[in-house]
Amino acid sequence: MPARARRTAAAVAALGLPPLALTVLAAAPASAHGSMGDPVSRVSQCYAEGPENPKSAACKAAVAAGGTQALYDWNGIRIGDAAGQHRKLIPDGRLCSANNEEFKGLDLARADWPATGVHGGSYTFKYRVTAPHKGTFKVYLTKPGYDPAKPLAWSELDLGHPVATVTDPVAAGGFYTFSGTLPERSGRQLLYAIWQRSDSPEAFYSCSDVDFGGGHRGNTGTEPAPAASAPSDRQIADGAGKSTMRHHGRGGDETTAPAQQPSSAPNAPKAAGTSRDLAETGASAGTAYVAIGGAAALALGSAALFLSVRRRATGGAHRR
User: What pLDDT does residue 24 have?
Assistant: First the structure.
């Protein structure tokens, strides 16, 4: 907070103004994070394997390309000011990373990403969430003929027919759970999930590899890719101290207090109010300072009115 805003807040407190003014000044941005848990997303799968020593060839390659931090930040593949402009902001070949350099290893085009076995028909999706917020989920499936060994392009998604769409689901047990319907496909395909918040322009993205059977094998041409598995609550809790994202417990409750990060953690998050926190809400630092400045101006106006009324009352008492 700028020095001027701090002085204003101190002045407001000293003058005994109503708590509302202090509430406005002290308001801090919230955060929202998540990734598809079933079918498990690429980033969640690699985090479950262990960022420092992943087991699958695909996750090893992802770490080699982008480093381990992307996996500790598994719930942060996002664009703060997306506002529904997903295709405009994310170029072909960068869908799984949402064009975020930190997560570039997830964009690797290869046929051996660990996959979840599925089949056509109804499917229950589970989206792991660490801070629930209102918004809409849309899940898209790749078209017939999708080749996982080629970079993923928007044109390969069946954007006209999402396999699941839900608005404002209720989080329970750390997940948003909602239903969809998968069409008939064969072989390896990919599910692309977009969570667009309605209380912010921020959006989250995830890629989940799935296998309908009877199609592409792994990159050896003889063995199937390994089955996918999601991280456990324990794994998520154990890695939270190395994440640069703010975790809110298991994500099951709006009121869950943020987990305390040890001050000695090498990748501990920045203090609230930093550019990372502001970006999480889809707001910019400038926007926040404008809001603080507006609150400060309101507080100063209230202070002037308070003093004016007090002087009049005191003056009237003296005249009597």
Answer: 35
The residue extents of the domains of the chain are 3-28+283-319, 34-242
pLDDT at position 187, please? 95
| Rounded distance between C-alpha atoms, residue 72 and residue 251, angstroms | 16
Q: How many CB atoms lie within 10 A of CB 314?
A: 10
> Residues 29, 288: contact at Cβ < 8 Å?
yes
Taking the C-alpha atoms of residue 174 and residue 161, their distance in angstroms, rounded to an integer, is: 28
Q: Which CATH number fits domain 34-242: 3.30.1600.10, 3.40.50.980, 2.70.50.50, 3.30.43.10?
A: 2.70.50.50
Q: Which residues contact 165 (CB under 8 A, 6 or more apart)?
A: 136, 137, 138, 139, 180
Residues of the chain predicted below pLDDT 70: 1-32, 214-226, 246-320
The helix-helix angle for 57-66 and 42-49 (nearest 10°) equals 100
**Per DSSP, what are the bridge partners of residue 123?**
180
Return the pLDDT at 320: 47
